[in-house]
């Protein structure tokens, strides 16, 4: 299967594509835009996904639409800006953050929610910056896929780490 960039964002104005990809002014006007995109993603998770009855599968399904949109918009932003994975494009961090917390409620049985959220945020930033475990190679995927999938992998590595620490803690 060949990964291609979705074409629907081509119909959008450059201003619209970049506004979504940058999360408005966050990606363009603040230092360390990836950190701000991750913080916005953490807020996104706590407002829309942290419902007590939401299963990990439900969280994943709800987030798939956002991931598809991010692939399309981040890929189009790359084209419009003429650069690979520009730092100001932070929609990828935003949509990846909820995946850090798949199955998170058992973690809150051991630690307060704020500790779990802070730990997930810090681990995600560490994995997103260092790109261990082969995550760096995912950036070579074409179009917006490389922009987004490396962040998804960092988020899943964060999730595994949080659950491994919980398992070892018990």
Description:
The chain has 170 residues and is mainly alpha-helical. The chain has one domain (31-169). It contains 8 helices and no strands. Helix 4 packs antiparallel against helix 8 and helix 6 (113-130) packs across helix 8. The chain starts with 13 loop residues before the first helix and ends with a helix. The model has no long low-confidence stretch (mean pLDDT 92).
Features:
170 residues; 64% helix; 8 helices; mainly alpha
Q: What can be said about this structure in brief?
A:
The relative contact order is 0.17. By secondary structure, this protein is an all-alpha fold. The protein has helices spanning 14-21, 26-29, 33-48, 56-81, 91-96, 113-130, 135-138, 143-169.
Number of domains: 1
Low-confidence stretches: none
| β-sheet strand percentage | under 5%
| Backbone CA Rg | 16 Å
Number of helices: 8
How many beta-strand segments? 0
Mean pLDDT over the full residue set: 92
Which structural category fits the helices and strands? mainly alpha
**Biggest beta sheet summary:** none
Please provide the ordered H/E string of secondary-structure elements. Answer: HHHHHHHH
- Mass-distribution shape: globular
Question: How much helix is in the residues?
Answer: 55-70%
* Straight-line N-to-C gap: 42 Å
């Amino acid at each position: 299967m060949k990964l291609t960039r979705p074409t629907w964002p081509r119909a959008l104005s450059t201003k619209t594509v970049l506004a979504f990809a940058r999360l408005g002014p966050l990606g363009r006007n603040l230092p360390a835009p990836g950190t701000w995109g991750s913080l916005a993603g953490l807020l996104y998770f706590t407002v829309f996904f942290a419902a007590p009855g939401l299963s990990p599968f439900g969280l994943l399904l709800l987030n798939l639409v956002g991931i598809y949109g991010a692939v399309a918009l981040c890929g189009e932003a790359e084209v419009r800006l003429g650069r690979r994975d520009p730092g100001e494009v932070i929609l990828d961090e935003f949509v990846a953050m909820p995946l850090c917390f798949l199955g998170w409620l058992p973690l809150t049985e051991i630690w307060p929610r704020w500790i779990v959220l802070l730990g997930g945020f810090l681990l995600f930033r560490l994995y997103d910056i260092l790109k261990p475990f082969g995550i760096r190679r995912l950036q070579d995927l074409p179009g917006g896929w490389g922009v987004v999938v490396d962040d998804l992998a960092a988020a899943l590595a964060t999730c595994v780490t949080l659950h491994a620490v919980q398992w070892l803690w018990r």
